[in-house]
């Protein structure tokens, strides 16, 4: 008999996999009627929520997995350090898995983890992740899951984020106050919640200062540096080129600086550059770059603490499951003609 998955149940009942997962885990978000429909079909089709994995988890391995897009990004490197500090102090081992921003790789890793011996999962999803059914399968199997930075809301045991909307608003406001009126925003993904939130903060700042949001100011970038550099160069050669650029992620910083150099645009005199970045070299770039610096280490600590507390079966207050740690606006010469 073909293995029945949550996707089969969802299709048969015309429900989302998230709803199926919540119904199977007796979530208060789901009505009793829907729960009964799901449970009835699950029994009829002999759906088994990965019993092997559940059985293995009966014995604690003192190991947690951390699934992230990459380690070249300074944010994730710092987050790993935060996670390991908490895990080591509690006697846990940390396994690091890299998705390289590929959804299929993320799915394969989670499938492997579902059949392996880990006690819990920390995850920051890929730029391609639009649906969470592959993560819901782990949740339905009873594996504690905590998201950090790049999240799906209301799935798993908690979320650790920063104040992306407010940070983006303040960064855009700063550029406007420096005289910028044509500010480009570099998108790294159309799916990621953090990018959408940062974009909304940018739009609101424009609105509050009487500036018109124009779609030509949005540059949708990829995961390939050379392609991104070409996109930015093309935009900088436009007759209505921007007077400022905000990079929504650290990966786009070097591409932006290179593109400006190749177009012989001086920073900050001709164009101003700012980014969401945890680059330790931000202060020694030429010129030093204004950044939104995320509390990566602290976010890693908070995510690990929440996960380990859940694994140990300790009581978790609902307020503890949604942690927001503010980022910092570091002003440097890339956005200011004169600095003190």
Could you characterize what this model shows?
With 340 residues, the chain is α/β, with parallel strands linked by helices. The chain folds into three domains: 1-48, 434 Repressor (Amino-terminal Domain), CATH 1.10.260; 58-162 and 297-324, Response regulator (Rossmann fold), CATH 3.40.50.2300; 164-293, Rossmann fold (3-Layer(aba) Sandwich), CATH 3.40.50. The protein is built from twelve helices and twelve strands. It has a six-stranded parallel β-sheet, sandwiched between helices. Strands 7-6-8-9-10-12 form a six-stranded mixed β-sheet, sandwiched between helices. The radius of gyration is 22 Å and the shape is elongated. The model is unreliable at 51-57 (pLDDT under 50).
